[in-house]
Amino acid sequence: MLRLRPYKPCDANSIVNWCNDEQSFRMWSSDRYDSYPISPADMNNKYYDWNGDCVEADNFYPMTCYDELGIAGHFIMRYTNGDKQSIRLGWVIVHPDVRGQGYGKQMVKLALDYAFNFLQANRVTVGVFDKNTSAYYCYVSAGFKNVQVDAQDTYRFNDEIWSVLEMEITRDEYERKNSRSQIFTKNKCLKRK
Length: 193
Fold this sequence. Notes:
Oligomer: single chain
Low-confidence stretches: 183-193
Distance between the termini: 25 Å
Structural class: alpha+beta
């Protein structure tokens, strides 16, 4: 069973090794780091100042997912506006040994539960490169929908141009999706008896 907890600096020792090449690293981090590969200290310097305090207290939430075998995933959440109604999900990554096994969807669901139930957000957004189809469909399965934007962001990797697809899920959509899931689960259990 996948669980969620706040990120600890020692988590970086594992997470920085989950991207085996620069392309997968850039799909995860875009241009947020100057070079590849990165060290655990590089990752922690994005999250904490020299005192060890979070770089954006009460606005930035790095999280780690784990199961009985250890760290399985990581993501960050941050508020994107001053009224603390909108949360941006980012740097979503799962351990390479569990990719394709539903961990990403479970982790995104935990992130949504935290954002809507604990942080009391009304909307969660995420950006995903059009080339990253597995991540895109993971977000779709969690309830995210594409959002039209005036100007689509792009990122250049070597000779390629990657477009950023903007996605979101609102509190209402999240609650409708979860109430349907609970009804389905109850009906499914009743049918098995």
